[in-house]
Specification:
With 586 residues, the chain is an alpha+beta fold. The chain has 3 domains: 284 residues, Rossmann fold, CATH 3.40.50; 129 residues, Galactose-binding domain-like (Jelly Rolls, Sandwich); 83 residues, Immunoglobulin-like (Sandwich), CATH 2.60.40. Helices cover 24% and strands 29% of the residues. It has 10 helices and 25 strands. The chain has a 7-stranded mixed β-sheet with strand order 4-3-2-7-8-10-9, sandwiched between helices. Strands 11, 12, 13, 14, 15 and 16 form a 6-stranded antiparallel β-sheet that branches. A hairpin with a 2-residue loop joins β5 and β6. It starts with a helix and ends in a 5-residue tail after the last helix. 45% of the residues are buried.
Length: 586
């Protein structure tokens, strides 16, 4: 009897361990994003500060791209050498990227030092841009691996000093070297290096866009590595994987704003579907977890339950504004910030929470308070987007836009927190100049952070997709218990989609009506598909599966064992860092 009990126990454990390592989502779910033929000759670039940020920012998106055979370039700005030489982390980055499908030749190291501080309270971003920084390791020049040198050494045969100007130049040159159609880049996160790379990247983009007769306009998406990812909700073991969540409580950098960067509204975020190969119900069967594990020195697996989500979120930054090719003069103040691609700047990126700058603020004794934009070639204009200052106590209440043909339109009040105020009007042709006057102000910081000028209010995107949602969650293989009798279906879309139809693919005991699915008592599986009516190549397909009480017990049991294994691995790596390396992982 005891032998039989032992055999049964061992069999159950073997079965559960099998489930732990073979728990991928199953079924005929699929999405058309990245799969269209036009993507095959395009390049996507990911620009991040540190080795492991590629996963925090866009790990599942990178895998989605490589699964569809799209060329991906991953650019690491620093060597992450704050604690030691950084060599280990460079090797780890190559290993993790390989798991994500990016070969070594498509990894670019810029080779700058981690946390380049002028002093204990000043990052080199806010210092003189030619100031040479000495790193925590006592170095002043870029480096990478002997077998894989940094970008500047590869292209010029020389290392570069650690200066803000050199870093900006290298970011600019690596972009122009590859000219990617899409760029995913880190935004103004809570880490000072993330803030610096975000703003220096924007300076590099500004230089590219403002170059005379520029013809390169990449589609840019910026996102956060911390809130929503590294500091997201620990919801991996929920019955259905949820999307990235808005920061709450202690994770909010500044509760006055929707996100860590004031111009962004949470509801305006872009949500991207993740790769089929990154979906699983246990960590040990998850590809993103494997990539995180490759960053051994960081022990980043401890936040895997936060990082792995059903979507990845970004905010689009338009690059086709006519303002980048304009000449700007102002009646007073600094007007050069009006077309520098920065929606907000920061005088001290070390400060938490950050206070923002980069605003054209006319002087008190300026009666006119005007900004003049002129163009070398006459333009057609029908939309102007204005970004006010980030200070919530100051705002432009009223203003006037005047075109050289005599057309005038009023605007105001501007939205608070430097969010976009869109001014649309009937197309005006042969416009060689325009004037923006600030007629009524509130507070001593009222002004403009950025002015974007467009010849069309339609901004086409290369990303055209639809995604079926259940309970505001991107659905793939969606599990329900017998208690669920119906579910409302929602449709998320991006790009030129038009109307879509949602319809069932299979026959089972369910009814789909008015985008609501009702389940019968014998229901087992529903396959639901959405298609753009104007283009059937744009589609999404999900599977809804009823899970029995026994199946749920098996799933939860395997997840409990998975949690235990994950915790053991986390403790071992933590102790390794403390006892062997001498510092805790970040």
């Amino acid at each position: 009897m005891e032998s039989l009990i032992l055999i049964i126990t061992v069999s159950i454990l073997v079965f559960l361990f099998y489930r732990i390592y073979n728990s991928s989502y199953r079924g005929p779910f699929l999405n058309s994003l990245w799969s269209e033929k036009e993507w095959k000759n395009k390049t996507v670039m990911v620009i991040i500060p540190h080795q492991d940020d590629e996963i925090n920012l866009a790990g599942a998106t990178i895998k989605n791209l490589t699964d569809n055979h799209i060329h991906v370039i991953v650019v690491f700005a620093t060597t992450s050498d704050y604690h030691d030489s950084g060599i280990d982390r460079l090797h780890e980055a190559l290993a993790a990227s390989k798991i994500l499908g990016v070969p070594e030749e498509d990894i670019v190291f810029l080779g700058y030092c981690n946390m380049p501080m002028v002093n204990e309270t000043q990052h080199f971003y806010n210092a003189d841009e030619d100031l040479i920084i000495t790193s925590d390791q006592g170095l002043q020049e870029t480096y990478a691996l002997p077998e894989k040198p940094e970008f500047c050494f590869n292209t010029t045969g020389k290392h570069k000093n650690y200066t803000k100007k050199n870093l900006r130049t290298d970011i600019q040159e690596v972009i122009m070297n590859y000219k990617p159609e899409i760029i995913f880049a880190v935004d103004f996160d809570r880490h000072i290096d993330h803030r610096a790379i975000s703003l220096i990247f924007e300076e590099a983009i500004s230089n590219i866009l403002s170059k005379k007769n520029n013809s390169y306009f990449p589609e840019i998406y910026k996102g956060f590595c911390y809130n929503g990812s590294y500091l997201g909700k620990k919801d991996f073991y929920d019955l259905n994987l949820a999307g990235e969540a808005k920061a709450e409580g202690e994770f909010i950098n500044n509760p006055d704003f929707d996100t860590d960067f004031p111009p962004y509204l949470w509801q305006e975020r872009l949500r991207l579907p993740v790769a089929r190969t990154t979906l699983s119900r246990t960590l040990n069967s998850n590809l993103i977890y494997s990539a995180l594990r490759a960053h051994f020195s960081q022990g980043i697996i401890h936040n895997a339950k936060r990082i792995i989500n059903s979507d990845q979120i970004f905010w689009r930054r338009l690059t086709t504004s006519l303002s980048y090719q304009s000449h700007i003069t102002v009646t007073s103040g600094n007007g050069q910030c009006l077309n520098d691609f920065k929606l907000a700047d920061c005088n001290n990126i070390y400060e938490l929470p950050a206070s923002f700058s980069g605003t054209w603020i006319p002087t008190n004794n300026d009666i006119e308070k005007k900004a003049f934009f002129s163009f070398d070639t006459p333009q057609t204009i029908n939309q102007i987007i204005l970004y006010g200052n980030s200070n919530l106590d100051s705002r432009v209440l009223e203003g006037t836009i005047t075109l050289n043909n005599g057309f005038k339109t009023k605007f105001g009040p501007l939205k608070e927190g430097s969010k976009a105020t869109i001014v649309d009007f009937i197309s005006q042709h042969n416009i060689s100049s325009l004037t923006i006057s600030l007629d009524k102000l509130q507070g001593d910081q009222a002004g403009l952070n950025e002015v974007e000028i467009y010849s069309s209010d339609k901004h086409p995107s290369l990303l055209n997709f639809v995604k079926i949602m259940l309970n505001d969650t991107f659905a793939y293989e969606y599990l329900i218990t017998g208690k669920i009798k119906y579910l409302p279906l929602e449709l998320y879309s991006h790009g030129k989609i038009g109307t879509c139809k949602i319809f069932p693919v299979n026959n089972d005991d369910f009814q789909l009506s008015d985008n609501e699915i009702t389940f019968g008592t014998s229901f087992k599986t529903a396959i639901i598909r959405a298609e753009a009516e104007s283009n059937k190549n744009i589609y999404d397909q999900i599977i809804i599966r009823k899970i029995t009480a026994l199946q749920l017990l098996i799933l939860k049991s395997s997840q409990i064992i998975d949690m235990i294994l994950h915790r053991i691995e986390h403790i071992i790596k933590h102790k390794y860092q403390m006892w062997i390396k001498g510092y805790p992982y970040e």
